[in-house]
Amino acid sequence: MSEKTYKILIGLVTLGLLVGAWGIIEALIWGTHATGLTSYSPWGMGVVIYLYFLGLSAGGFLLTIMTHVFGLKRYEPLARLAACLVLVTEICAIISITLDLGHWGRIYLLLIRPNLGTPMTWMIILFNAMVLIYLLKVFFFIRKDERWINTLSYVSLPVALFFYGVNGAFFSILSSRPVWNTPLTPLTFIVASLLSGGALLTLLTQAYQPEQKLTSGLGRAVLLLLITYSILEGLQYYVGYQGAVMDVTKVLNDITSGQTWWRFWIIHLLLGTLVPLYLLCTQGGNPKAVAWACLVIVITFTAVRYDFLISAQTVPMLSGLDKAFVHQRLSLTYSAHFGEWLIGLFLVSLGGLAFLLGQRLMPTLFFSKGGTHA
Description:
By secondary structure, the chain is mainly alpha-helical. It has helices at 3-30, 45-68, 79-101, 108-112, 119-143, 146-172, 184-208, 212-243, 246-257, 261-282, 287-311, 321-324, 338-361.
């Protein structure tokens, strides 16, 4: 990118950090009282942002494994970039979920009385293990220590598979939440993560390693993942409607024909699925077209995460529960407060700043030949 473009992007992400900082301040001072969360809708934008960044990290993990475990050397120039992607997105994810916890003072209970029988405990353990592994991996990339890089890649394979699988299983085992509680959820979760993460990695590849073969090859993988995810999502809706379970149908109707129907039909299906599908199928050999398709997927995937998480909480866990007591904090309708959106802006800007400054401060991590511009 040109120096002018670089300065504009630096200015934009800096502005995003300054504006989004108010959301961080609100969360630090008032905790969950500054959110739109209710007793019946306890998960909101904090978890949506967490799932979003968690998915973005999956693409980097997959490529590092392909390079250092399965020996696909043609993608070796991207391995360092992929490791940085995992580290940055995981840090953004952990900031989001930490701000969403509310009672930080109780985290010591995990250390003194961990319940190894619950997915939540293993999510936290595996999350910290992933951050540590990729922090060390980036360090050894800087040191150019191939032996430790390969060792950490092998170690990260089972850790990451359990990590992404546990995150999907966490939702799948919640029998009181329709649509989540299906055997397809863990698989759909993993494919969705690889799709959004692969799209971001492809976009960064075009920015930092603009080689047609690399971008086009990753574009084909993104296309396959997009088709696979669309099939899984179609099966989820088909089985849900054919099963005619009232709560499941209600959740699906809330997504497809509720007040925010446009989020599913326009943002997700039209812009996030059909447009990139057309570009990847018809112009897969054009790196710029592939990059645009991946950019659209990365941006619009927030709608997928939002619908998945929020709509399932619109159904009471017990029939008539929402009518037993009436209070603004006992509502099934969740609406993210402005401060919650500001936290999302802050974390996106933080991730963008990390990559923009990284290419100047540590160019060997972003360019295979140690360059300073893309």
